[in-house]
Amino acid sequence: MTQIAAVIVAAGRGTRAGGPVPKQWHPLGARASGAHLRVIDHAIAAFRPHVARIVVVHHPDDLELAQTLDDVTLVSGGLTRAASVRAGLETLDGHGIDRVLIHDAARALVPASVIRAVQDALISHKAAAPALPVTDALWRGGPAQDDSTDATPSTAYVHGTQDRSGLYRAQTPQGFAFDAILAAHRGFDGDAADDVEVARVAGLKVCITKGSEENFKITHPEDFARAETLLRLRQAEATAPQGQENTLMDIRLGNGYDVHRFGTGDHVWLCGVKIPHGRSLQGHSDADVGMHALTDAIYGALARGDIGQHFPPSDPQWKGAESHIFLRHAIGLAREMGYELMNCDVTLVCEQPKVGPHATSMRAALAEIMGVDVEKVSVKATTSERLGFTGREEGIAALATAALIRP
């Protein structure tokens, strides 16, 4: 029988998250008894059903905290992440482990589906890891490269763009055939960003599996609020009687509608995707009509007005602004109010350009901006049968609906 173990890395200091203790020991949620759980408790619980043994690699200064954990093997970490992982792997050597999952404790809410996908991939591969494709535009930036008068030493400036094709955001758990990753770490010198880097140096091919937006890494203070909201949603879903799920939740619905006319140009922005076209949409910002409609739908669900109230077109700082700024603000406001997106649906009304070939990319772009799973995002298109301003190809209209939930 295949023996699978998990190595949960919890030896970092996590200073960016703030608080009196490293983030992995920070309270997060509570037991039914009222006792507080911590970030690391959730990470450990996520792996209990999937592995035979769990090793926790802790910082030497955190031994007293680590000793409060039940039914795990404790190992003191090293000076680097790579050294800490190797310490955990060495502890498992000689115990009949066939495969190992290496996970960051700060990814406390990793879904079971992500863990299972890595395990399934290890049946036919020696290495597998979850990831999400990069959908945002990428910039290279830094200090000003000239002596212009508007340059300030503390400000970063855009120096260029970076092609995002084939780029992924790495997640954990990263899974391996045990003997292969142990040998890779024993032969590795220095530190590495993650264990995929160590594996690739050793010549292992790493299979990419599907990640999840819920598998985010708690890094900054605001991430704890996001994690608490997700925990409440999961608890409500788990405890609601069948057929009565909605009785435990505050559900908000919002609608959005936007129109932009065509003008001169060679592309349009639709739902976060740049599409070559003979004309461009005109507007105070980048005129992403689909994203504007969705943003207004979220504001509407919250009863917090519309884009114009939060980002007045009379304010010159928003001239030519990228619309993801507005959408991030709307979803951020929703989370501040305790809501998460249940799902959203955007309909683009136009004769041209054709939306179908780009719909998948649009869904991914919107999901990335909002920090949700792509399965919660729908983008589709229709024509107006050559009727009206959209039928005459004078512009594009968009309608959007957003559903928000709060336990």
TrEMBL record:
<dbReference type="InterPro" id="IPR020555">
    <property type="entry name" value="MECDP_synthase_CS"/>
</dbReference>
<keyword id="KW-0456">Lyase</keyword>
<comment type="similarity">
    <text>Belongs to the IspF family.</text>
</comment>
<feature type="binding site">
    <location>
        <position position="260"/>
    </location>
    <ligand>
        <name>a divalent metal cation</name>
    </ligand>
</feature>
<dbReference type="GO" id="GO:0016114">
    <property type="term" value="P:terpenoid biosynthetic process"/>
</dbReference>
<feature type="site" description="Transition state stabilizer">
    <location>
        <position position="284"/>
    </location>
</feature>
<feature type="binding site">
    <location>
        <begin position="284"/>
        <end position="285"/>
    </location>
    <ligand>
        <name>4-CDP-2-C-methyl-D-erythritol 2-phosphate</name>
    </ligand>
</feature>
<feature type="site" description="Transition state stabilizer">
    <location>
        <position position="23"/>
    </location>
</feature>
<feature type="binding site">
    <location>
        <position position="292"/>
    </location>
    <ligand>
        <name>a divalent metal cation</name>
    </ligand>
</feature>
<feature type="site" description="Positions MEP for the nucleophilic attack">
    <location>
        <position position="164"/>
    </location>
</feature>
<feature type="binding site">
    <location>
        <begin position="382"/>
        <end position="385"/>
    </location>
    <ligand>
        <name>4-CDP-2-C-methyl-D-erythritol 2-phosphate</name>
    </ligand>
</feature>
<dbReference type="GO" id="GO:0019288">
    <property type="term" value="P:isopentenyl diphosphate biosynthetic process, methylerythritol 4-phosphate pathway"/>
</dbReference>
<comment type="function">
    <text>Bifunctional enzyme that catalyzes the formation of 4-diphosphocytidyl-2-C-methyl-D-erythritol from CTP and 2-C-methyl-D-erythritol 4-phosphate (MEP) (IspD), and catalyzes the conversion of 4-diphosphocytidyl-2-C-methyl-D-erythritol 2-phosphate (CDP-ME2P) to 2-C-methyl-D-erythritol 2,4-cyclodiphosphate (ME-CPP) with a corresponding release of cytidine 5-monophosphate (CMP) (IspF).</text>
</comment>
<comment type="pathway">
    <text>Isoprenoid biosynthesis; isopentenyl diphosphate biosynthesis via DXP pathway; isopentenyl diphosphate from 1-deoxy-D-xylulose 5-phosphate: step 2/6.</text>
</comment>
<feature type="site" description="Transition state stabilizer">
    <location>
        <position position="16"/>
    </location>
</feature>
<comment type="similarity">
    <text>Belongs to the IspD/TarI cytidylyltransferase family. IspD subfamily.</text>
</comment>
<feature type="site" description="Positions MEP for the nucleophilic attack">
    <location>
        <position position="217"/>
    </location>
</feature>
<dbReference type="Pfam" id="PF01128">
    <property type="entry name" value="IspD"/>
</dbReference>
<feature type="region of interest" description="2-C-methyl-D-erythritol 4-phosphate cytidylyltransferase">
    <location>
        <begin position="1"/>
        <end position="251"/>
    </location>
</feature>
<dbReference type="GO" id="GO:0008685">
    <property type="term" value="F:2-C-methyl-D-erythritol 2,4-cyclodiphosphate synthase activity"/>
</dbReference>
<dbReference type="InterPro" id="IPR036571">
    <property type="entry name" value="MECDP_synthase_sf"/>
</dbReference>
<dbReference type="InterPro" id="IPR034683">
    <property type="entry name" value="IspD/TarI"/>
</dbReference>
<dbReference type="InterPro" id="IPR001228">
    <property type="entry name" value="IspD"/>
</dbReference>
<keyword id="KW-0511">Multifunctional enzyme</keyword>
<keyword id="KW-0808">Transferase</keyword>
<keyword id="KW-0414">Isoprene biosynthesis</keyword>
<dbReference type="InterPro" id="IPR029044">
    <property type="entry name" value="Nucleotide-diphossugar_trans"/>
</dbReference>
<dbReference type="InterPro" id="IPR026596">
    <property type="entry name" value="IspD/F"/>
</dbReference>
<dbReference type="GO" id="GO:0046872">
    <property type="term" value="F:metal ion binding"/>
</dbReference>
<feature type="region of interest" description="2-C-methyl-D-erythritol 2,4-cyclodiphosphate synthase">
    <location>
        <begin position="252"/>
        <end position="407"/>
    </location>
</feature>
<feature type="domain" description="2-C-methyl-D-erythritol 2,4-cyclodiphosphate synthase">
    <location>
        <begin position="251"/>
        <end position="404"/>
    </location>
</feature>
<dbReference type="InterPro" id="IPR018294">
    <property type="entry name" value="ISPD_synthase_CS"/>
</dbReference>
<feature type="site" description="Transition state stabilizer">
    <location>
        <position position="383"/>
    </location>
</feature>
<feature type="binding site">
    <location>
        <position position="258"/>
    </location>
    <ligand>
        <name>a divalent metal cation</name>
    </ligand>
</feature>
<keyword id="KW-0479">Metal-binding</keyword>
<dbReference type="InterPro" id="IPR003526">
    <property type="entry name" value="MECDP_synthase"/>
</dbReference>
<feature type="binding site">
    <location>
        <position position="392"/>
    </location>
    <ligand>
        <name>4-CDP-2-C-methyl-D-erythritol 2-phosphate</name>
    </ligand>
</feature>
<dbReference type="GO" id="GO:0050518">
    <property type="term" value="F:2-C-methyl-D-erythritol 4-phosphate cytidylyltransferase activity"/>
</dbReference>
<dbReference type="Pfam" id="PF02542">
    <property type="entry name" value="YgbB"/>
</dbReference>
<feature type="binding site">
    <location>
        <begin position="258"/>
        <end position="260"/>
    </location>
    <ligand>
        <name>4-CDP-2-C-methyl-D-erythritol 2-phosphate</name>
    </ligand>
</feature>
<feature type="binding site">
    <location>
        <begin position="306"/>
        <end position="308"/>
    </location>
    <ligand>
        <name>4-CDP-2-C-methyl-D-erythritol 2-phosphate</name>
    </ligand>
</feature>
<keyword id="KW-0548">Nucleotidyltransferase</keyword>
